[in-house]
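The instructor's notes for this session suggest beginning with a concrete chain rather than abstract definitions. Hand out the sequence below and ask the class to guess, before any prediction is shown, which regions might be ordered.
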Amino acid sequence: MSSENKITDLFQIKYPIVQGGMVWCSGWKLASAVSNHGGLGLLGTGSMHPETLLEHIQKTKQATNKPFGVNVPLFYPELETVMEIIVAEKVPIVFTSAGSPKAWTKWLQQRGIIVVHVIASSYFAQKCEEAGVDAVVAEGFEAGGHNGRDETTTLTLIPAVRKTTSLPLLAAGGIASGQAMMAAMALGADGVQIGSRFAISKESSAHDDFKKLVLGLGEGATKLSLKKLAPVRLIKNKFFKQVEDAELRGASEDELRQLLGKGRAKKGMFEGYLDEGELEIGQIASCIDDIPSVEEIMKKLIEEYESTRLQIIENSKFIFE
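After discussion, reveal the predicted structure:
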């Protein structure tokens, strides 16, 4: 892998691989493990109270001396408190999502923090450049968790965003292998953000029953739902069926919020209630069939990437001879 890379240079990491900051999966054990093995680990702030975030930041700093960051959804109810904790703890990198990049970018950068914003369209990539962010994550429709409403796939989104901006670009959505990483970078990405593969790892804080459920998922086992609120990709369980039925009969936003209630994602992914919980995972889950360590995941990603690169070189000899 080339030593000249915008993402590795920006974050001061070995490989251009970022672990997504996923709710109920991305605690200090996962984030520190990814950072220790050459990527960039992120804490998932969206499922943490401020005091919990503080604890996880401090434990991450004890577990690694490598760069790490936090993912902050901008609809977080105690946003100012979280931002003050991030600054006080000298977290070097913040990924923001689900809101305007203008809201916090300059404030964080003035305090020495690198800011990356997650988007799902080339239009918002332009807004990110105007806001002065340091990099963007272009997340395709395949991704788990909160998603774009336009259902643009990663293979379509990456080249569109690349035409729009010269900012360092991370591809996300449907990436769980070195081959997919190579494909994303061939389309113009400088690196990748990987969620689902790391969610189903030994260090993930997700419940073991949730991890085991994912191993048995086939193609079509997830669907983008709740587009009237904040789009999220869900496993088709009993709760999903209730959501789907409500949406088909034209339920209002208030009705959907009432159905969603509080703590539904925690109930499913963290506590292991697989029927009643909100189970978020990407489409790539159908290709995940084991629960390895982060070390094993990183090693396999790099080996697959390098072998794919060499295979492309070898194949090109026959094409152009």
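Then share the key points. Residues 208-284 form one domain. The mean pLDDT is 95.
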